[in-house]
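Hi U.,

Before I forget, here's the chain from the pilot set. I'm dumping it here mostly so it's searchable later in email.
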Amino acid sequence: MTVRDIKQVQRQICPVTVDDTLEADLVGWLVAQAQAHDLTTLLAHADDGVIWGEMRQKQLLTSGDVFSEPDVSPPLRALTLQQARLFGPAAELLLWRTEGGWQARLVTDDVGDEVECFDEWQILWGTRCEGSRDGFTLVADGAQGLRHAPPVRVDVRLFDPGENRRPLRLQVRHYLETDTESGLLRVTLSRLVQVTDETQVRKEQER
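Structure:
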């Protein structure tokens, strides 16, 4: 049984205005948001695939920039984007497409109301390392060769295809609130915190 370390934090949820500049310059809009809220990592889902990214020297470097193969990562475009999460230790910006246009919201820790939360380390796809470039690691999984390239440096020795080991981890923070009818705690909101590997997770848990 997994023991959840429930902790008390402050949390604030704010809507974010999305103007016309997003359609004209999606990357520029995301960079501006990342700089304003100290966000470091991008995970985006588009019609044509998954896109990872990382802020470097006030620029957004994506997996599509690093690995140009179409079956690894498509380009980051407003035309095909479904949703994007820009995140970091202190906050997450969620951008998503609706029938009426773009919507966005920002979740920030250390300000706002006191709430309870717990962190979960989700296992990411990737049993085989197919190379690394500019701090991104290209991994594949399954007979279909599902591929993606998160912005994390991984020791290749952590991969063991014979054992189907998946060493990549995504830290997700779940916020809890008490249900007014049942009186039970339930997850009402979740956000991304960081992408890393199992070695770093063990180090953090040992602190």
